[in-house]
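DM between two lab members

TW: hey, do you still have the Cytochrome c-type protein entry open?
JB: yeah, one sec
JB: this one, 183 aa:
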Amino acid sequence: MRKTKLFTIAIFIIGGIVGLVFALGIAQFMYVTGDDKFCVACHIMEPMRDAYKNDIHGGNNKVGFKAECVSCHLPHDNIVKYTYQKAVNGVVEGAIMLFGHPEKFDWEARRKESKRYVYDSGCMHCHGDVKNVIADNMKAFLAHRDYFAKNIDKTCVECHEHVGHKNLGFHLRDKFGDLNTTK
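TW: and the structure you got?
JB:
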């Protein structure tokens, strides 16, 4: 009877340790694959990274705060959506890099579809305080009042068109030449 009890306790302890190591491994993987260093590993992302570094969101601000790529380009509604979209993005973008010709994409045209790959939940994850009316943010609240009241059907990037990547058009032309300006 005593051996059974010890065995059960040992199973719980070992299972807990294995679960903890597994969870920490997944958390570390999610962390290291979420910043610009990882994203620019696909060389096609260099213009996006360069424009990001010049932007407020890329650390070009008074305090040096940086939003990571996944802060804007993954949904923050819940962990299931976040993980699913991260996996989909990884597979699709990896396949494009291996089998496609991303250097021939019309990146300027893709910028116009930014609401497909920039999530309002990501914006609100950092800027959610705009929703709470206080004296310090009255001006920002009033500018977004219709959005919060759902009186308009626009996403954040439909109003804040060039947010996150300052002068991206310049960096795209620098990398790809006129390919992106003729279309």
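TW: got it. The first helix runs from residue 2 to 32. The chain has one domain: 34-176.
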